[in-house]
Amino acid sequence: MEGGDLGGGKRARAACGGYICFEDEAGFTRRPPKGRTWGRRGRTPVVTVSGRRSGRLSVAGLIAMRPGSRTRLCHRLRTHPAGKGQRRSMDERDFIALVDGVHHLVKAPIILVWDRLNTHGSHAMRELVAERTWLTVFLLPAYSPDLNPVEWVWAHVKRSLANLAVVALDRLEALVRNRLKRLQYRPEILDGFIAGTRLTLDTPTSP
Fold first, then answer.
1. Whether pTM exceeds 0.85
2. Scanning 27, 52, 117, 141, which has the fewest C-beta atoms within 10 Å of its C-beta?
3. What average pLDDT does this structure show over 158-176?
4. Which domains does the chain have, with CATH numbers?
């Protein structure tokens, strides 16, 4: 895996003409995000939810961009049923499967930018990255969600689910898939998320 900044490097220069991809992950449960809503004066609206553990939905999202090409949003979802000893997050194989799927779609080299999650920098992940000559990875600075446009995707999706309590985990999965699919057909919104990071693309120069 390449170093921990967004600098250059021979492998990055070789990827020129490919896609820059930002990845991030989020979790959803049956307890809905809170949001503003209308209500009768003096009566605060109440959303009834189950107090029982009901599992969790993990989602990995990836925005792929290249000057002159349509910006794309790809994602991978996994449900984690409630229960002691059950894993409640994605592993290295889940993340690399998402990246492989994007590479198959765009058929071009990929420069992947993501945060410093333990799974992203694990020994297993470094081995998986090394096996893919078309893949270059950079780590975002610590505590910098404002530099990752996928964070805006999660904010957009959670805002659309505000105050919406669902009965079953599979229903929650269907709702999240629906919201993400809508964004896939709105590249102008994805471009707005990228612009919100205030990052710019500079052409690498030879040493």
1. no
2. 52
3. 80
4. 10-34+54-196 (3.30.420.10)
